[in-house]
């Protein structure tokens, strides 16, 4: 980088981190996403970057882990000199006091960044996520659900959303009072004054309703005004709705010059794609089924065999051999550990050690992906699942990603930056469980939706 970035962010999982990178990059804000805390030399390799992210795994971690790791991460982001530091969370807000606690991240970030009141923006209409009167809604197909009635998120295996009002949900995770800039305040003509009254209040957290273009743009305006009025880095929390709100304001006001239209880019088609999935989402299950019905070779991964010390290496080698052979025959491959909800045996393994299970299975899937790509020379891949993506990319040893082209909102095709020449320049998409249409894997292979 040649100057301080406009924004620096930490994503609580890898798929969400690429979501922010896409939102900024395709709207004319060059962004680099590091997969670990970058060195000065690595930062210098991206002189054009105006936003910098670090992909993380805190969504799957305990408050004790956050206490140990997040202060240093936030201090490092602040040291980049960006006026805004963003802790990026999932647009479904799934979290719990004991794992992936958004409240704990707010407490830590506010303390490190010296922020008295933390803005929280979750709604992102482009992702079909909406917040109204403090309640979060998400659309699936043609139906919109309050998040505590969402067919997947209400029964998430780790962090089920049992409360739709984000004020009440956050109250379980932080002692800070939570206020709301609601949709009626944002629609009103005196929205700046109503916002100022909330800023002058005693709340430690301020939620913003985002329901439509007006509330999105005005939220971005209020966020940026608060940032530019201050003399130090400002801390905020939210989905990529933060970036979409800022972009709407920057574009409307000219406060930050942007191209007149989103930057168009394209990738050429690939003859094959390697897909590894650890996602339990029914959306991903539908995408796997579509792929199997349309010419992809499927391989079912057995978590119990992969994780058992006496069978793990042999099971992994069988998977690598099978997937490599299919790719060398010219077929695309999808290797998956679950087709929707996990079976009872896998659920029992998870319940015995949730964090250890996810880590060890993700590492095995990362080894499968990396070794298969090495053996076959295939240069395009997909990893499905937020936790799986983090562990797989760490296993691969890459240090950064940049956006190549959009595929589905929130899960672009990216370029891998790695010191290893076998992996440098690889093209990969990190897909969240709820993202994409049924032919998503074929769209990645084609290089466009």
UniProtKB/TrEMBL annotation:
Coiled-coil region: none
UniProt keyword terms in alphabetical order: ATP-binding, Carbohydrate metabolism, Kinase, Nucleotide-binding, Transferase
Domain (Four-carbon acid sugar kinase nucleotide binding): residue spans on this chain: 274-439
Transcription regulation in keyword set: no
Classification via InterPro entries: 4-carb_acid_sugar_kinase_N, 4-carb_acid_sugar_kinase_N_sf, NBD_C, NBD_C_sf
Domain Four-carbon acid sugar kinase N-terminal: 7-246
EC number annotated for this UniProt entry: 2.7.1.217
SUPFAM superfamilies, per the entry: YgbK-like
Any GO MF annotation of the entry: kinase activity
Stated family: Belongs to the four-carbon acid sugar kinase family.
Protein name: 3-oxo-tetronate kinase
């Amino acid at each position: 980088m040649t100057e301080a970035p406009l924004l620096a962010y930490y994503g609580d999982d890898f798929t969400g981190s690429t979501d922010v990178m896409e939102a900024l990059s395709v709207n004319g804000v060059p962004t680099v996403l590091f997969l670990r805390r970058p060195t000065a030399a690595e930062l210098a390799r991206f002189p054009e970057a105006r936003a910098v992210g670090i992909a993380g795994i805190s969504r799957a971690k305990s408050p004790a882990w956050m206490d140990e790791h997040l202060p240093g991460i936030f201090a490092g982001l602040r040291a980049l000199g960006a006026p805004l530091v963003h802790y990026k969370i999932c647009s479904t807000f799934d979290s719990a006091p004991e794992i992936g606690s958004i409240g704990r991240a707010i407490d830590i970030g506010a303390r490190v960044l010296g922020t008295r009141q933390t803005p929280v923006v979750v709604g992102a209409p482009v992702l079909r996520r909406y917040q109204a009167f403090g309640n979060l809604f998400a659309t699936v197909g043609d139906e919109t659900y309050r998040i505590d009635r969402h067919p997947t998120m209400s029964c998430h295996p780790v962090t089920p959303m049992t409360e739709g009002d984000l004020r009440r949900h956050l109250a379980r995770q932080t002692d800070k009072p939570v206020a709301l800039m609601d949709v009626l305040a944002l629609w009103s003509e005196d929205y700046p004054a109503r916002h100022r009254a909330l800023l002058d209040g005693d709340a430690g957290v301020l939620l913003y309703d985002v329901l439509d273009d007006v509330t999105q743009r005005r939220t971005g305006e209020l966020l940026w005004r608060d940032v530019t009025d201050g003399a130090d880095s400002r801390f905020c929390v939210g989905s990529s709705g933060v970036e979409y709100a800022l972009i709407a304001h920057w574009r409307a006001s000219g406060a930050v010059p942007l191209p007149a239209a989103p930057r168009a880019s394209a990738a050429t088609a690939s003859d094959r794609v390697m897909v590894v999935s650890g996602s339990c989402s029914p959306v991903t299950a539908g995408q796997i089924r579509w792929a199997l019905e349309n010419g992809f070779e499927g391989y079912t991964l057995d978590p119990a065999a992969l994780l058992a010390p006496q069978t793990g290496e042999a099971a992994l080698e069988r998977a690598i051999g099978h997937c490599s052979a299919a790719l060398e025959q010219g077929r695309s491959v999808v290797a998956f550990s679950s087709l929707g909800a996990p079976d009872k045996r896998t659920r029992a393994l998870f319940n015995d050690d949730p964090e250890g299970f996810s880590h060890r299975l993700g590492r095995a899937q990362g080894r499968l992906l990396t070794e298969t790509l090495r053996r076959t020379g295939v240069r395009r891949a997909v990893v499905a699942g937020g936790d799986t993506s983090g562990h797989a990319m760490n296993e691969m040893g890459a240090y950064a990603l940049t956006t190549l082209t959009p595929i589905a909102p929130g899960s672009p095709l990216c370029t891998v930056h790695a010191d290893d020449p076998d992996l440098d320049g690889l093209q990969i998409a990190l897909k969240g469980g709820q993202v994409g249409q049924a032919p998503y894997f074929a769209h990645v292979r084609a290089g466009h939706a």
